[in-house]
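Notes from the 1:1 (GR / supervisor)

We went over the backlog. Supervisor wanted to see one worked example end to end before approving the batch request, so GR pasted a single chain during the call. The sequence is below; no edits were made to it. Supervisor asked that the structure be written out right there so they could see what the output format looks like.
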Amino acid sequence: MVKERRFLALLVPMLLKEDMAMRTAFDFSPLYRSSIGFDRIADLLENASRTASAENWPPYDISKSGEDDYRITMAVAGFSQDELNIVHEPNMLVVAGEKAAEDNGDYLHRGIAGRPFERRFELADHVKVVDASLANGLLTIDLRRELPEEMKPRRIEIANADASPKARPKRIEAEKQAA
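Structure output shown during the call:
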C-alpha cells in the first residue's frame, strides 16, 4: 500500500506537467449517415483544426451587413492599392500584400508592419465579391451570396389523383407468345 502511494505520488505530478496534445480529430460518421452533400463542411472543419493560428496579421473584421451581404475589413496601414492583390477562386478569397520597395530610413522605432502577407478566407457556395475599396488604411471587401433561381425554394402543387386522368398509371398487357 505504501509503495502504491509513493508510485502515485511520483506519477501524478508527471501527468500534470506532461504536455498532452488535444484531440483534434472528430468523428463525422453520424453526419454522413444523416445528411447528403455536406462532405465539404467536414473537410473545412478538419482543415481549420490543422491550420496554425499563430499568424494573426493583418487584423480583420467580418461583418454581416444584410440578409445575404457580408463585409471583410482589413487593417493594411502602409500598403497602397498597387501593393495589394485580391483573388477570388472557387470557394476561396485570397488577399495578399507585398511592399514594392523597402524604405531604408533611419528609424528610432518602427511599429507599422510592412511585411508581406497572405490571408485566405473560405467562402460558401455562390458567394461573390461585389466591391473592394481602400481608404484610410482599411481594405474593405463586400461580398454577396446570390443563389441561382433553380436553387431557391419553390412550392410544388399537389394534384388531385381523381381529377387528373394523367395521374393514373396506364396498364400495358403483353400477349404471351408460345414458343
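Supervisor's comment: The beta strands are 60-64, 69-75, 84-89, 92-97, 117-122, 127-135, 138-145.
Batch request approved.
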